[in-house]
Design a protein that fits this description.
about 110 residues, alpha/beta, Ribosomal Protein L15, Chain: K, domain 2, 5-stranded parallel β-sheet, about 45% helix, globular
């Protein structure tokens, strides 16, 4: 069980949304797992995988190696300071709870590990 209150609340919200949307159920299950299993993803990998108009969802930390050539939104559990700066130049950096409120249907979201 997670000890961080904000993380536990987020997992509860994701489970509620996951009753109807399978994406949020999977995200909640991944968030419940050990923090050692959370991945670190560089911006270069996000830029290769995500297409225009999609939202990148990272269940871990976004690191600043590389750059973004497309305008996109990135939602993640955590960001390095440099990564957040690079993302805000071309798009927006969201928290997981902000993404859930902004896009409750989970449309055009690409999960990146």
């Amino acid at each position: 069980m997670k000890t961080n209150l904000h993380t536990r609340i987020l997992i509860t919200e994701l489970k509620k949304a996951g009753k109807t949307i399978p994406l949020w159920k999977r995200v909640a299950e991944e968030m419940e797992s050990s923090t050692r299993r959370m991945s670190s993803v560089n911006l270069s990998k996000i830029d290769k995988i995500v297409q225009d108009g999609e939202i990148a969802l990272v269940l871990g930390k976004v690191l600043s190696s590389g750059s973004l050539s497309k305008k996109m939104s990135v939602a993640a559990f955590a960001y390095s300071e440099a990564a957040r700066e690079k993302i805000t130049k071309n798009g927006e950096a969201l928290s997981l709870s902000e993404l859930l409120k902004k896009n409750p249907q989970g449309k055009k979201v690409r999960l990146i590990k």
